[in-house]
Amino acid sequence: MRLRNGGFRRGIDLDRLAANDPTALAGIPLISYAADLPILRRYWRHVFGTRLEADPALTVADLRAVLSVVVAGAGISVLPRYLCARDLAAGTVVTLLETSDSPINTGFLARRIGGPVRPHVDRVCSELLKAAPGW
């Protein structure tokens, strides 16, 4: 869970949040890339053990736009670490709740065995395997 450094943090009971009480975030604007809050809902279910019953305060085009809106101070969101790593390092966003087992996104690169050689697919596979240890 990320937000702008400063921002809404003052209005959040961090002790309650650390105790996995999602009511600590009541009234804080949620930013999403879709009206049904897919990443936020999965995070809520995984971390808090309950269904998120909320509407986004703002829906934007994609995850990069979500990050930009969070950095601008409009609310909070759940973002993949790879997307906001620079902002975390710079202190422009902060992690509100660090969990030992965050929900994961699994991606698969598949190809047909015996199919034609596809150097671009081999290159993607190689790059993913190099990057994976850092995830």
**Uncertain residue ranges:** none
Strand percentage, roughly? 5-15%
Q: What spatial form do the alpha-carbon principal axes imply?
A: elongated
**Main sheet properties:** 3 strands, antiparallel
N-to-C terminal Cα separation, in Å? 17 Å
* Total number of beta strands: 5
Integer-rounded radius of gyration = 17 Å
Compressed to H and E, one letter per element, the order equals EHEHEHEHEH
- Indicate the percent of residues in helices: 25-40%
The computed structural class is alpha+beta
* Whole-number mean pLDDT: 86
* Quaternary organisation of the protein chains: single chain
What is the number of helical segments per DSSP (H or I, 4+ residues)? 5
Strand order of the largest sheet: 4-1-5
Task: Give a nutshell description of this structure.
The protein is of the alpha+beta class and 135 residues long. It has five helices and five strands, in the order βαβαβαβαβα. The longest helix is centred in the C-terminal third of the chain and has 13 residues.
Task: Report what the structure shows.
The model has no long low-confidence stretch (mean pLDDT 86). The protein starts with a strand and ends with a helix. 18% of the residues are buried. By secondary structure, the protein is α+β, with helices and mostly antiparallel strands. Helix 2 links the parallel strand 2 (31-32) and strand 3 (58-59). Helices cover 36% and strands 9% of the residues. The protein has five helices and five strands, in the order E-H-E-H-E-H-E-H-E-H. The strands form two sheets. The chain has a three-stranded antiparallel β-sheet with strand order 4-1-5. A two-stranded parallel ribbon has the order 2-3.
